[in-house]
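Quick one, T. Sequence first:
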Amino acid sequence: MSTVSVRIPTILRTYTGGESEVKAEGATLREVITDLDANYSGIAARILDDSGKIRRFVNVYVGEEDVRFADGLDTPTPAGTQISIIPAVAGG
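Structure tokens:
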């Protein structure tokens, strides 16, 4: 199983005890999010909607690639990959 680094945005750091980057395991993004939730209960619900898809206003990158343009939750996560979770910011 691959170990990856996941950058945690400020708004989700309450789930990781204030950590801005954590390790997780999984061969795909779906498995990584499942592992994150096993270690930081409740974080998956902030990333995924009720149907299990990535929330509309959350962007997730595996390496430099936006997973919306890759395989979504089935995007492979090779060992050592950096995953970034970036909530969209809106305002006016």
